[in-house]
Design brief:
With about 180 residues, the chain is α/β, with parallel strands linked by helices. The chain is built from 7 helices and 7 strands. It has a 7-stranded parallel sheet with strand order 3-2-1-6-4-7-5, sandwiched between helices.
């Protein structure tokens, strides 16, 4: 088995990325403090043709050297916007017909493996702060609270890992 070279991967250009059909999924980052986590979310979002990223609250925004370190240029391909108030954004998205999923451990949450997206429905996933998680008021305003089943002792994953797991799961279910 031979590893493929970069020129054999069939990558699209940034201009092509902007015009291809996107996965009907939006990522909302709620007060993410780590610039490396933000960059990693950009890179994952590029990989799965995510429609848009919203950076809210204390999230840093591109251009930023620390974000670029992990994004590796994905800030140029994935559409993004800064919105100060996450709750206001969630209300706006819901008014536009987007179903909002807070990714959080909560009472009556739905396990990720039990969640089945409705075909052709657009979803937004809200990813919370590394310490405090998704703000309670945002969880309250969400259509669903989705939890990744975890069996170990920690019951927490890094936000960039969580985002990757959730995007992959929803991406495969939306195909």
């Amino acid at each position: 088995m031979r590893k493929l070279k970069n020129n054999e991967l069939g990558r699209i250009t940034v201009d092509e990325f902007k015009t291809v059909k996107k996965t009907p999924l939006i990522v909302v980052l709620d007060n993410i403090r780590s610039l490396n986590n933000i960059g990693s979310v950009f890179r994952t979002s590029d990989a799965f043709l995510i429609e848009k990223i919203y950076l809210c609250g204390i999230c840093a925004t591109p251009p930023n050297k620390e974000i670029h370190k992990t994004a590796l240029g994905a800030t140029a391909s994935v559409a993004w916007e800064y919105v100060e108030d996450t709750l206001e954004l969630v209300e706006k998205l819901k008014n536009e017909g987007v179903k909002v999923l807070s990714i959080e451990q909560a009472e009556n949450s739905t396990k990720l493996n039990d969640f089945h997206p409705i075909p052709h429905q657009k979803y937004a996933i809200v990813m919370g702060n590394e310490v405090k998680g998704v703000q309670q008021e945002v969880v309250n305003a969400s259509d669903f609270c989705i939890e990744i089943p975890q069996l170990g002792t920690k019951h927490s994953l890094n936000i960039s890992v969580t985002t990757g797991v959730v995007i992959w799961d929803l991406f495969t279910k939306m195909q």
